[in-house]
Specification:
single chain; 187 residues; 18% strand; 9 helices; 6 strands
Length: 187
């Protein structure tokens, strides 16, 4: 299956396909969502976890359904406790025969520790600059996600200071080049 991409989206996909961990710094409206779905298809990912803002969940879901018609799409939205929704999501991932996308917001996902332990083929962190708080719950949860490939999407990768990089990079598994503590990184 081929997903039509603009040349800048093709460069994003090729960049991420050549690495296990990457970040796309591309402005709003440049098609990061479509490119991340194309990355999943082109790399043969079967289990994809997408962390995105709550307001974007339905848009991401629609885009996946349009571009990958046979894929199963499960979101964190719905009724019940986080534990009940987590159980339903894990069962859907296990039962899926083809590609399965789990799309949720970080505030809900971080309440679902079993999802971090699933062996994901691809973890997409949309608006990854929101993971900059090195001691934040979402950043710590994201750092625990078990994924073969991770890609962070953001138009404002370092929103305030270069120190934002520490929490974001650690959350995405890019911190191997950085010191292990924020103090050492700052120094």
């Amino acid at each position: 299956m081929s997903i039509p991409l603009w040349s800048h989206q093709r460069r994003l996909v090729d960049f991420a396909a050549a690495r296990t961990r990457s970040v796309w710094a591309a402005g709003m409206g440049t098609g990061k969502t479509r490119a991340s779905i194309a990355l999943a298809v082109e790399t043969g990912a079967r289990r994809i976890l997408v962390a995105t803002p709550l307001a974007v969940i339905d848009g991401f879901r629609r885009e996946i359904e349009n571009l990958v018609p046979g894929a199963t799409v499960v979101t964190t939205k719905g009724k019940g406790t986080a534990k009940e929704r987590e159980r339903a999501i894990v069962e859907a991932v296990k039962a899926a025969e083809g590609m399965v996308f789990v799309v949720g917001n970080l505030e809900s996902l971080r309440l679902m520790p079993r999802l971090a332990a699933v062996n994901w083929c691809l973890y997409v962190a949309d608006e990854c600059h929101r993971l900059k708080a090195h001691n934040g719950k979402s950043s710590k949860w994201s750092a625990k996600v078990s994924a073969k490939r991770t890609v962070g999407l953001s138009g404002t990768i370092l929103g305030q200071t270069p120190l934002d990089a520490f929490g974001t990079w650690r959350a995405l598994g890019l911190s191997s080049r950085f010191p292990r503590t924020l103090t050492a990184f700052r120094d």
